[in-house]
């Protein structure tokens, strides 16, 4: 049997190689490249982010990735897998929501007190509404924070609208101007951006080359760079990641996680506030510069997806294992208790589940399995976990969940779920989106501001069971 499998493998490789050489190369031959390097370079050329790069930019990326086109290809594929670039997505922001179709059109709905919906007004929207001023511009990534929205185009430009501040909108201490229509972020015009993440008191962006830049992250610790809190210019994140390409960033309450791609494998770095152990280093101390989370090496886990909740974090490994750490209040770590974990710990209750995606919010966690099943655990407020409402011993309508439980209400839609997004803010009641493989969007949880895209009736403020949002993202 083993010999037969080996024979089949070599036959597949032979067919793939023959197919590669039968097609015109459309690029000048490089006699210094091996066949495997040549094939990897050809596959890199087919990636959307790689295509517009100049020869010099490509060589720079190659060196950052370790001097190999195979490593560049791994970097590009890893970024596409964890960030859904070039694919549809839905973002459950604090009180408002953003939906991006596979064609790059953008819809927004929900709270709009700061113009964060981008429609030129400050009126709430209870139904998904396209952002008209962006017609003809293809959006590949979106980020939503308290009173603020950022959109990334396929050409690496960044549009921002809402609160005219990269700080925490709820505090109101930075910036009083509101921007109600998408405006280009001029300070980023020389950086090809592929992802943005909005945290509390700061915003981070990721460049095509895997460099991380932050805005307005200073305060007393001056974390990540030595600038003032009100500095609106992007500054590169200093320290260990200056020469290591990052494929994904995730922002929580005063901290940032970076999924890095190195020749030795994938790794996670964290920087910021260590309260509750959310930086994953076994302590609760702050880190002024990015620091490698070493626990993944001990656990023999290759991180593939990283998620930053308000006070806790999670990672999915290449083997499908899920790790969580940070503040365990309400059971959001899935370990059967409410204890804090200062270093990543495998969620044993998911041992028989091969996970491919994880999402975290304010004391809430969702895990999506390879076959599309969804599990959730943590705080049960606002019905954002998707489980049927029950009354606990204290009379609370939505009980907290300490161990991962299958979201049976999503199982009933008979479609494979590919993405979960939930509110990551300590100031808003949470809502959750489930996106299916065919582009259908389902929402549940808090909807008092229209953030579900579903108009509620009478005195309703939430939806317990997932309901189809009238928008096709496919």
Describe this structure in words.
Pfam families: RCC1_2 (PF13540), WD40_RLD (PF25390). There is one protein chain. This protein has 474 residues and is mostly beta strands. It has a single domain, classed as 7 Propeller (Methylamine Dehydrogenase, Chain H), CATH 2.130.10.30. 14% of the residues lie in helices and 35% in strands. The chain has helices at residues 2-22, 35-44, 55-64, 69-83, 295-298, 408-411, and strands at residues 89-92, 96-100, 106-110, 125-130, 139-145, 148-153, 158-163, 178-184, 193-198, 203-207, 212-215, 235-236, 246-252, 255-262, 265-272, 287-292, 303-308, 312-317, 322-326, 341-346, 355-360, 364-369, 374-378, 401-406, 417-422, 431-436, 440-446, 462-472. Strands 1-2-3-4 form a four-stranded antiparallel sheet, with no helix packed on it. A four-stranded antiparallel sheet has the order 5-6-7-8, with no helix packed on it. Strands 9-10-11-12 form a four-stranded antiparallel sheet, with no helix packed on it. Helix 2 (35-44) runs parallel beside helix 4. Mean pLDDT is 87; it is low at 1-14 and 167-174.
Summarize the structure.
Helix content is 14%, strand content 35%.
């Amino acid at each position: 049997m083993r010999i037969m499998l080996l024979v089949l493998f070599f036959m597949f490789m032979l067919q793939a190689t023959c197919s590669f050489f039968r097609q015109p190369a459309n690029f000048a031959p490089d006699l210094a490249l091996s066949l495997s390097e040549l094939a990897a370079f050809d596959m890199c050329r087919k990636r959307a982010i790689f295509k517009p790069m100049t020869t010099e930019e490509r060589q720079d990326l190659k060196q950052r990735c370790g001097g190999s086109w195979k490593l560049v290809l791994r970097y590009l594929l890893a970024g596409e897998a964890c960030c859904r670039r070039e694919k549809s997505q839905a973002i459950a922001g604090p009180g408002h929501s953003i939906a991006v179709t596979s064609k790059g059109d953008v819809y927004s709905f929900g709270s709009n007190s700061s113009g964060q919906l981008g429609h030129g007004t400050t009126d709430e929207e209870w139904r998904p509404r396209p952002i008209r001023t962006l017609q003809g511009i293809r959006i590949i990534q979106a980020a939503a924070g308290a009173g603020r929205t950022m959109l990334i185009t396929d050409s690496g430009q960044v549009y921002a609208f809402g609160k005219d501040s990269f700080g925490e909108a709820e505090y109101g201490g930075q910036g009083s101007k509101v921007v109600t229509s998408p405006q280009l972020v001029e300070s980023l015009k020389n950086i090809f951006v592929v992802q943005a993440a909005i945290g509390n008191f700061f915003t981070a962006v990721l460049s095509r080359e895997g460099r991380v830049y932050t805005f307005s992250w200073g305060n007393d610790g001056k974390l990540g760079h030595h600038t003032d809190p009100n500095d609106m210019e992007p500054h590169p994140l200093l320290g260990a990641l200056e020469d290591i390409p990052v494929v994904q960033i995730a922002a929580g309450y005063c901290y940032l996680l970076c999924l890095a791609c190195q020749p030795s494998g994938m790794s996670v770095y964290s920087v910021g506030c260590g309260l509750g152990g959310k930086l994953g280093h076994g302590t609760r101390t702050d880190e002024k510069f990015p620091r490698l989370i070493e626990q993944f090496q001990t656990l023999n886990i290759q991180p593939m997806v990283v998620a930053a909740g308000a006070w806790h974090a999670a990672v999915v490994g290449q083997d499908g294992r899920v790790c969580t750490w940070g503040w365990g209040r309400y059971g959001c770590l899935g370990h059967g208790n409410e204890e804090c974990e200062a270093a990543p710990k495998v969620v044993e209750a998911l041992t028989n589940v091969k996970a491919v995606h994880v999402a975290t919010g304010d004391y809430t966690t969702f895990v999506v399995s390879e076959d599309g099943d969804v599990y959730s655990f943590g705080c049960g407020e606002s019905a954002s976990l998707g489980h049927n409402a029950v009354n606990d011993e204290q009379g609370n309508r939505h009980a907290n969940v300490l161990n991962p439980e299958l979201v049976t209400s999503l199982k009933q839609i008979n479609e494979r779920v590919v993405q979960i997004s939930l509110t990551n803010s300590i100031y808003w009641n949470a809502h959750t989106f489930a996106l299916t493989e065919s582009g259908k969007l389902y929402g549940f949880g808090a909807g008092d501001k229209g953030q579900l895209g579903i108009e509620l009736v009478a005195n309703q403020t939430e939806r317990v069971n997932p309901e189809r949002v009238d928008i096709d993202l496919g």
